[in-house]
Write a structure and sequence with these properties.
Elements (H helix, E strand, L loop, with lengths): L1 H28 L8 H15 L4 H4 L5 H17 L2 E5 L10 E6 L5 E10 L9 E6 L10 E8 L12 H18 L15 H12 L5 H7 L11 H10 L4 H20 L9 H12 L29 H18 L5 H12 L7 H9 L6 H6 L7
Parallel strand pairs: 3-5
Antiparallel strand pairs: 1-2, 2-3, 4-5
Helix pairs in contact: 1-2, 1-9, 4-5, 4-7, 4-12, 5-6, 6-11, 9-10, 12-13
This protein binds zinc ion.
The site of zinc ion (ZN) has 4 residues, from α5 and α6.
Length: about 375
């Protein structure tokens, strides 16, 4: 993990310098004269985003009808990759009237499990999006998975079509990626089954599944104007793709710095003397080579609560690490013909069906044939590898 962050930091630092120059130019363009400070960054970066990358949601949303995204996008990609099929059920009890249920069938027609989708925001509902299960897979207990995906999309007014944003589309693919990890589980013990994996692995299948949202074949299949069925105009598609690369030097930089702090604090031996917090932090960050004057860590040591109380304990790097895994695995797909049953089967056999029954690095190597590499992650975020 330290080696990974050491490779990520220089590329991020180079991108931060470019972005900081843009932000300074934006400050000057408005006729203001002052030195850029971290607390100015968001305000002026937002102006740049609006000018260069802003997606007009009213222009985009008519292409994302929720049911079409679900069945012609999320389900379609899973069918093309893994051969699974879906049948909506209306006979199962639900805890909320607009929850939808589907039986998931395997490629041979046998029943794989059940899916519940609870997408709409409600007044009494916890915010955010997540996947979990009512019943976990286990051959010991003879149980098949019963999985739910929850989100908080804005419900359309009565009589209006259920149109969602591209962020929502991405969320659907993400949470369904977790669901596939649970559906394809083939373990004896429930504690090792499906998504019962470590933090630096569990987001790999979900983030990997997000890639199919923008895969040309999948995107063309679901992103259809809900009235006319027309495909999205290419300039609009390009805009969605470009927006993903905006401000990545800042976003990655504050995460790398925070992850490094987490790692270094937890690397101190038990016998180490009490540290001067500011000096320890400054020393750790200086070693990274990031310009933390412009982009400070997401959390400073003195209030980085979750590395102490919420169990990160040297695990905060996991979000960045799983980005490397999912970008690298998707690059493997692209290099091997993309959306094919053979590729999907390989991923299912070597990754998705294994739960926590093997070491993660062994699983990745078995799938790819080598260690994970950082190149595709840098490329997807608009960063070039540091020389
Ligand atoms: Zn997730």
């Amino acid at each position: 993990a330290l080696g990974f962050m050491a490779r990520l930091a220089p590329a991020t630092a180079a991108e931060q310098k470019r972005e900081a120059a843009d932000v300074r130019a934006e400050i000057a363009r408005g006729g203001e004269r002052f030195a850029l400070k971290p607390w100015d960054w968001d305000r002026y970066a937002e102006r740049i985003r609006r000018a260069r990358y802003d997606l007009d949601q009213d222009q985009v949303k008519p292409y994302f009808l929720l049911d079409t995204v679900l069945q012609q996008g999320v389900f379609f990609a899973a069918n093309q990759l893994y051969g699974v099929t879906f049948k909506e059920r209306h006979d199962l009890p639900v805890y909320q009237p607009d929850v939808r249920t589907f039986t998931v069938y395997d490629k041979d027609g046998s029943e794989l499990g059940l899916m519940y989708f609870d997408y709409w925001k409600r007044d009494n509902k916890q915010g955010g999006a997540w996947m979990s299960n009512f019943v976990g897979q286990s051959t010991l207990l003879g149980t098949k998975p019963v999985i739910y995906n929850v989100a908080n999309f804005t419900k359309p007014a009565p009589g209006q079509p259920a149109l969602i944003t591209f962020d929502d589309v991405t969320t659907m693919f993400h949470e369904f990626g977790h669901a596939l990890h649970g559906l394809f589980a083939a373990q004896m013990y429930p504690t090792l089954s499906g998504t019962n994996t470590a933090r630096d692995w569990v987001e790999f299948p979900s983030q990997f599944n997000e890639h199919w949202a923008l895969d040309p074949t999948v995107f063309a299949h679901y992103a259809r104007q809900y009235r006319t069925g027309a495909a999205m105009p290419q300039p609009l598609v390009d805009k969605i793709k470009r927006a993903a690369k905006f401000n990545q030097g800042y976003a990655l930089g504050e995460l790398v710095a925070a992850a490094e702090l987490d790692m270094k604090w937890h690397s101190l031996p038990a016998a180490a003397p009490l540290q001067d917090v500011d000096a320890f932090e400054a020393g750790t960050l200086a070693g990274l080579g990031l310009d933390t004057a412009d982009v400070p860590p997401r959390y400073r040591s003195s209030y980085f609560l979750h590395i102490w109380g919420n169990g990160y304990s040297a695990g905060y790097y996991a979000y960045l690490w799983t980005q490397m895994l999912d970008d690298d695995a998707y690059a493997w797909f692209v290099g091997h013909g993309g959306l094919t049953r053979a590729n999907g089967q390989r991923f299912r056999d070597l990754i998705l069906s294994r739960g926590h029954t093997q070491d993660y690095d062994a699983m990745f190597r078995a799938f790819y044939g080598r260690e994970p590499e950082i190149g595709p992650m840098l490329e997807n975020r608009g960063l070039s590898p540091a020389s």
